[in-house]
Fold this protein.
Amino acid sequence: MEPEIRIRIADELLMFLPAARRRPRQGVAHGGTSTLGHIVESLGVPLPEIGALMVDGERVEPGYQPAAGDEVAVLAVPRPQPVPLDAGEVAPRFLLDVHLGTLARRMRLLGLDTAYHNDMDDPALVVQANEEGRVLLTQDRGLLRRRALWFGAYVRGSRPDDQLRDLLGRFAPVLRPWTRCTACNGVLATVGKEEVERELADGTRRSYDVYGRCTDCGQVYWRGAHGGHLEKIVHEAVRAVAAARTGADGAGPEGSGAGVPETPESAAS
């Protein structure tokens, strides 16, 4: 019989295993040549989702060469998960793949620096994430296995509400709602009504007095018909971040509606 190593996988990571092997304890045949990181990834768990690898109680790196009989523990990333920040940054910067467009708009609504493209292939995504220091968010496990990627994360959930909740719980980022363009990620600036009234429909001009404009693409924003729905997203997001930081479910301050409001046409619904 080929020698084995025994692996215990954190419950949070079992979702990555094939259904037939979805159990926390695994016996894995080991011929002595593969690294521990390769073995764990071959089970289905991407390395960016691993918080630590422990062998007989000691932390090891993915390049560790296990020996027959080793007892391995595969731990999930901590929540909140620290992200290296550049000087002056207060929150991580993100890049989302093609399947997460609605999540991208909601993250921009919350003031998170969020790049998104619907026409960029995997190698280009990795290049942009690395060059700009962005956390790459995806539901593509193969993308997370690319060795060149500096920092990636798997987004859990099929609904945008669940995806946003997972993202906020994982990183607990500082939020600055109503400060970014949901269309292009540019920064919003308050503008006087007289500066934009020629671009407004008659009903909008009569109904609203507070406006903003994206400093990059020029999109005009105002608090429109979707304002209540967006306020709810912001409110719940602020509470989710506070809960993630304190560990108290539902704790934290109320969401703020301050800043430049959204337009119904660009609403992150």
Observations:
- Helices lie at 36-43, 101-109, 122-132, 141-144, 160-171, 193-196, 202-207, 227-246.
- Residues 93-185+225-266 form one domain.
- Residues 88 and 174 are 13 Å apart (CA to CA).
